[in-house]
Every structure is written in C-alpha cells, then in structure tokens.
Amino acid sequence: MTYYENLSISNSTLSVFNYDPSYFYKVFITRELTEKKESDAMLLGSLIHCMLLEPEEFDKRYFTSSVLPNEMPTGMMFEYIKALSEQEMEDDLTHEFAYARSGYKISREKVLENFNKVPAYRTYLAELKDPRQVISSAMMETAKLNVENVQNSPYWKRILGGIAWQQHKELEIYWSNTVNVEGEEYALPLKSKLDHLFVHYDKAFNLLSIRYFDYKTDSQKPVHKYVESFEYWKTYRQFAFYYLAIKEWAKQNHPEADLDISMYVVPIDVVRNKTIIYEVRKSYISKGMTEIDKNLRDLAWHMTHDLWEYPKDIYSEDVPWLYPSED
Fold first, then answer.
1. What is the pTM of this model?
2. Complete domains list, the chain, with CATH
3. What is the pLDDT of residues 155-187, one digit of tens each?
4. Helix (H) and strand (E) counts for the chain?
5. What are the Cα distances from residue 9, in Å, to 16, 28, 117, 246, 248?
6. Cβ 229 vs Cβ 235: under 8 Å
7. Which are the contacts of 315, defined by CB distance < 8 A and separation ≥ 6?
8. Largest CA distance in the chain
C-alpha cells in the first residue's frame, strides 16, 4: 500500500475537515467528490520537489517536450489535443469527442484542418500519450534554475554547520493519536510525508538533533514577504502536525534520547527566481498545536455521531454566534 492509498489522516485531510466537515465527508469518506486536477503552478512545484528530493525518480515521471515554445498548442487547440490524447485510438468519433470538449465555435472540419497542417501538434499529441508527464522546455528550465537557487543558498551552512547529518527525504511516518470524546477514548490513525529531515545523534550527550526543511513554491509574493502567505494559508498548522510526526519518529527510533527540534520553511519564488530559508518560531508551532488538537477532537466527535453537515460547534449551540476574526 502506498502512502496515498493509506487512509490515515494527514495534515491535508485535516485541513479539509477544518474548512468544511461536509466536504471532508464527501471527498474522503463517501468518495463522492474527487480532488482538483493539478494546475501549472502545482506542476512546477511538483517538478521542483522531485528534483530536490527524488532526483533518481525524475526521468521516470517527467520528460521535456520536443515541441518548440512558439509551436506549442494553446487555448482551445490545446484542449482539443488533450482530449484526443485521452482516447486509446484516433478516428472520426474521437475527433468528434475532442471537438465537443474543446469549446470551438468554428466547424469541426476547420479545426481538423488546423490540427493536421501543423506537424508539431501531432508530435505533442504523441507526447501526451506517454505515461510520463510531458513538460515544456520553459517550465523545465524554470524548475532547474529554482532548484539551483535552493541548493546554493548560504543558509544551509549557517544552519547545519559542519556536523555530519543523516538525511531523510520524503520520509513517511505513521502513528495514532488518542483523543477523548464524551468520556470515551478514540484512536485516530495519522500519517505524514516529510520533505527533508536532517538528523544527528550525539551519543555522549544522548541528544537527538533534528532539523526539518519544508519546500514551498510560491508565484504570488516575493520571498521576503512570505510571512503573509504563511499566515494566510495557516501553514503553521502544517508545521505543528509535522512536529507531532517528528516527535513520533524520534520516539520510534531513539526512545530514550533528548530532543532538539528546529523547523524551517524554504519558500521558492518561481517568478523572481529567489529563495530564503526561514526558521519557524515555536510560537507558531504552539498556535498550530492548539488548532490541530481541537480538530482531532472534533473529527472524532463527528465520526462517533456521524454528523457532517456543519462543524461540531454549530451542533452544540442553540443559536450559533458570529465570532469575530482572530486576525
């Protein structure tokens, strides 16, 4: 069973629950809804993550398109070719399907004529049928440039010094958390997949030092303003969840050791090609812990009562209050 097939609760699923229990129920319990498809921005983030954390897997997952940027299909022609690529064979029926999906208003015959007269379009169609993800050369170069910026950052030496660290990338951690629901103990299975963990165990002092780095691609704000994104997206919740996972991993692997944990976020500005490494303050971790603890207790309550339309607090009040924003 892969990490994504495992049904334990992750930070992402808990965030969905925090946003709307009814949406959580339809996505993760009844499976009525599916998650949205990957956008170009998310794809670029996936490229950068793979280059940084799983470089040996990169060529198995991605390849660069041979189609020149000025010949790349766009707009409705892109949708037309994409729809064609989803079919096992190419015939009149599949072209009719692609025409309907593309949104063209001109005749199907004219669309087919435009498709056939540009050789690069058929090349791109063949590339889309490859089981790997086809990437434009421009996106590939952007990903490489940003990866180099991260790897060459002077902050690594300042944070890690000259210690010999053991590294763990894409580390999967599984554990359970017991919460009390109306006097009954309820065990929730949890999971995390951590980007980049540096570990050093000092036997002389029985001290386990852990430095965690989480990579965030951002196309909205420059990296020196990342705190705004960090707070807007409540990323401190994610770090608190990961802090719990790291403590569990330490308990599983060095149960008697004293812990020294520091956590860092690495925002990557893919528009301006810049990066900074920030240390996450303990106050953010504490704030996230408080919210996550409440979410886990509320989730257990919803599972016990099988009520999902509204958050628990709405059910517990005769008339719900309109609370002021904490911000």
1. 0.88
2. 17-32+154-315 (3.90.320), 40-144 (no CATH)
3. 999 999 989 999 999 999 999 999 998 899 999
4. 14, 8
5. 11, 10, 51, 16, 15
6. yes
7. 307
8. 78
